[in-house]
Amino acid sequence: MSVADKIQSIQKELDSTTAKLIAVSKTKPNELILEAYEAGQRAFGENKVQEMVEKEAILPKDIEWHMIGHLQRNKVKYIAPFVHLIHGVDTIKLLKEINKQGKKNNRIIPCLLQVHIAKEETKFGFSETEINEFLASNQLNELENINIQGLMGMATNTDDNHQVRAEFSGLKTLFDSLKSQYQHSQLNLSEISMGMSGDYPIAVEEGSTMVRIGSTIFGARNYTQSR
């Protein structure tokens, strides 16, 4: 199947749901991204700042660039002028840096708070307690150049679908709780980014609004192009 066929197949799966496809283009050449673009795909996910900046400079300007990887504070300034959504905000310090760079670029930058839902220490993210403490504080009042649009989570890398489903379900429960509990001008809880190539059908069933799919569309990751 071509890239276009794969995208159309996934879109057909998602048509009856509320989930949006983020095509994960990390390590992939511009030619493959353009194939997806010609098939109608506009939202692409990258996990390396340098790679995203290089692609944004060359590829069509109506592409929505999603930062889906772990973001270092000293790299925020490079993507602040154009990034559509930052999925993996995992510390308040990072959120403050995004706000700072948003102000410099006269932008309000949309963000998702990453929640640590997996039973793995290698995953980043806030705990439920930390998110509640942050939203209950007055710190958002000082962050006028960010907009928190929802949550992101990565399930444990396991073949146990019951565990994966429980982790996604827990994230949706937290999302619903936060949405009913907190109101703020910088808080617009509408997105849950969860689900990748191996588990996105479960994520969609559990309420995902964004699925991050790479290998199913573009094939196995090309490590030689990784930075």
Structural class: alpha/beta
Outline: globular
Q: Which radius of gyration do the C-alpha atoms yield?
A: 17 Å
Oligomer: single chain
Strands side by side in the biggest sheet: 7-6-5-4-3-2-1-8
Termini, distance in Å?
28 Å
Mean pLDDT: 94
The main pleated sheet reads as:
8 strands, parallel
Helical segment count:
9
Molecular structure report:
This protein is α/β, with parallel strands linked by helices. The chain contains 9 helices and 8 strands. It has helices spanning 3-14, 30-38, 49-58, 76-79, 92-104, 128-136, 161-181, 200-205, 215-218; strands spanning 20-24, 43-46, 64-67, 85-89, 109-115, 146-153, 187-193, 210-213. The protein has an 8-stranded parallel beta sheet with strand order 7-6-5-4-3-2-1-8. The chain starts with a helix and ends in a 9-residue tail after the last helix.
Give a concise summary.
The protein is an alpha/beta fold and 227 residues long. It is 39% helix and 19% strand.
Can you give keywords for this protein?
227 residues, alpha/beta, globular
Walk me through the topology.
Elements: H1 3-14, E1 20-24, H2 30-38, E2 43-46, H3 49-58, E3 64-67, H4 76-79, E4 85-89, H5 92-104, E5 109-115, H6 128-136, E6 146-153, H7 161-181, E7 187-193, H8 200-205, E8 210-213, H9 215-218
Parallel strand pairs: 1-2, 1-8, 2-3, 3-4, 4-5, 5-6, 6-7
